[in-house]
Amino acid sequence: KQEVTQIPAALSVPEGENLVLNCSFTDSAIYNLQWFRQDPGKGLTSLLLIQSSQREQTSGRLNASLDKSSGRSTLYIAASQPGDSATYLCAVMRSGGSNYKLTFGKGTLLTVNP
Amino acid sequence: DGGITQSPKYLFRKEGQNVTLSCEQNLNHDAMYWYRQDPGQGLRLIYYSQIVNDFQKGDIAEGYSVSREKKESFPLTVTSAQKNPTAFYLCASSMAGQRTNQPQHFGDGTRLSIL
Q: HSE-up of A111 (CA within 13 Å, CB side)?
């Protein structure tokens, strides 16, 4: 059974700092890994999707890496801003079969202080 | 604008009552999903559908039912058999499941509480 763990559970940083969020998964047989952002009381917004054949993806100040063999991914946020404050969730899509389901971690609650 | 609409935003259920949560998408996506989120927890999959008139149970389907009569709509019914229904419910959609390079898109959720 796939398990996804996110560390730390919460993180508080001053504005302008570069930071890294971690995600690990137990089964390396995956189609992709996805990073989402969730604001309080809202749904999820897709940030980055890394396919199993890729090592990283970048969007603006965000960079996500994937090391499938070790079951790890990191989300790097450069020059953090108060607007980055949210919960960040990672999810993996397990390969094999035809169900294409995502397994989510519990998230990292990020607070960026002005 | 294309997107996913969930309604209502807040819903209250009485003991022994069934309630239905609405999810509509205009993204022309084939696959739709229902998740449950409890405080401090990740999302757990309730039901999913990869094509009209077909759906499968997720990890926590007991006490829930769904239908997929139209491509755009995937309503979720929380039945009286679900003894702990208080949670935040999220609907998502994506291109056909085998398009694994495409992310899931989410609605803004329905918060269900017990009266």
A: 5
